[in-house]
Amino acid sequence: TGKQKMKVFDGDEAARAGRYHTVSVPRISRTDDVVEAALREYFLPGNPTDYELRSLSLAPKRAVSMATVTWATTRAQRATPETSSLSRVFRDTLPEAYVIRAKRSSSEVVKIYADWLCKGVAYVSFRIDESHTVRSVITEVLLLLGRKNESPDDYRLTEVMMHCREVQRRVLVMEQSMLDHLHEIRKQLSVQRINLTRFYITAKLDGDGNTQLLVGGLPPGLAAPDYLSLLHQPGSYKQNTATITQIYSKQGAVALEVSSCAEAERLFRLANDSKITVDDKIISINLLPTLILHPQPEQMPRSCHPLLVLINPRSGGMQGRELLHSFRKAVNPHQVFDLACGGPLPGLHVFREVPRFRLLVCGGDGTVGWVLSLLEDIKLKLACTQPPVAILPLGTGNDLARVLRWGPGYSGEDPLSVLINVDEAQEVKMDRWTILLDANEPECAQERTSMPRPYQIVQMNNYFGIGVDADLSLGFHNAREEDPGKFNSRLHNKSVYVKVGLQKITHNRNLHRDIKVQVDNVDIDLPSVEGLIFLNIPSWGSGADLWGSDSEGKFSKPCMHDGLLEVVGVTGVMHMGQVQGGLRSGIRIAQGQFIRVVLQRETPIQVDGEPWLQPPGNIIVSAGPQV
């Protein structure tokens, strides 16, 4: 009677490392029931009869020992008293844990993906047995792909293992048994890992020995010799083994071509393990895949638009991390980049010579703005200077995704349906705006900062807020900084936002007395408001229509590519709540192409949801390049 919890390890490596999942089953359970529960816990497909459990001793200071748990073969046998004791897992003496294993089979079907463009063919599949070596697999794949006259010695079979944070590649030895290799992956690594592993057939090229690295975290604004001098320090790369192929001066990053694969791997491991520093700053090193283009890229079919997927794993709780796994299985894993590992630059550098490609950005509006800003900075280094950008919204807010009809947030759709939507989406233009913040020479400021501050330039995509709107965002931001672990659900985020709003509900800043606004060089007489919002898109505060849908003679209908910003006022927190509830709209004030704001006291502001306190001074908003 009752339930019992047991530890289930997936593979010998997990057992040695102590990584397990807890499975809860009835105390009197048969082996097949426990196997089914373990498969569900690890999200493993397949028939339970293809798996077995091995009992695992966790006694201290003893070697790991395993014994196969006996399988009950048929329902009739399970029903008999003679076999029921053998088929039950739990008795008086209970094993401490189990390792789940796939049963060894004499043959199985493998999928092999071609590393070159094959029209209408994503992969070939066929059955292998004990006699198949890597060489014979390559020979059979070449035959199935119509390359029967080519030698298998000119090709190699590469194992690509897709983790959440990185993609591992390994070239298989030509004479090793393919079936033994698959069994070894399941045994040593994990049964689950085989579902995250692909095999690619690739042609051997003369340049295979060169490896691409992207080094970030360097001082910005230096020349190539200075970057080489910085990198050539004790513990960094060996002299004459690497050359700089591209400099991203503003980002403080350089691309290196390393002549030795072993040296590239040494550098990569060294950066991750011992933290190489340059000018007391830890640098990052990304190992990049090599993109093999058509000999004449301009002859690439006009209908061919490779997809670059950029995913922010920190957006939307754990959604970003799960999408990394999903998309690395849905497309070539080398097209999918983790923004937590070097930002958008590694992926854009890999695609820099592709004449036409598309971007799928998985994250919030801040992530999209990050990618768009980098695209603007490095567009002269890209063959495709303005790739279309699709959005898979994660987390809360997502006003830009709502306007572009990508939805309010990701709700677990199949990655294939997302890819179909990207392929069928219509391209549209969007205005972007440049905001110059100058706190050095405030006009008529009653309070001046003791130290002069340099001007700052930021880019805006969605909206720019001054006053109560930014004050709420700043309160939410500070709460999240204090305890970021709690902010992993939309419901909690919204509850904190409401709590901050209630704290600000009695504030009366009289913002219209503290600032001056010019629109297209015309002074604006501001009404009595607590907040001003400058809108580029018709969505604010998680989908609210702040401008309103009513037509008004002196204002044109807002559009995200009309070259105009809408200036709207709100009277306080209550007014903002009514707008978000659809009961009211904001106070329409102006539309224009060039805006100048003078702050006469320190005031909270926010740009696309990023808030801070801005000292008194001038703020100038002007049109930037469209995207």
TrEMBL record:
It is found in: Membrane. The keyword Phosphoprotein does not apply. It catalyses: 1,2-di-(9Z-octadecenoyl)-sn-glycerol + ATP = 1,2-di-(9Z-octadecenoyl)-sn-glycero-3-phosphate + ADP + H(+); a 1,2-diacyl-sn-glycerol + ATP = a 1,2-diacyl-sn-glycero-3-phosphate + ADP + H(+). Pathway: Lipid metabolism; glycerolipid metabolism. It is an enzyme of class 2 (transferase). SMART domains: DAGKa, DAGKc, RA. SUPFAM superfamilies: NAD kinase/diacylglycerol kinase-like, Ubiquitin-like. Its EC number is 2.7.1.107. GO terms for cellular component: membrane. It holds the Pfam family RA. Residues 302-439 form the DAGKc domain. Belongs to the eukaryotic diacylglycerol kinase family. This is Diacylglycerol kinase.
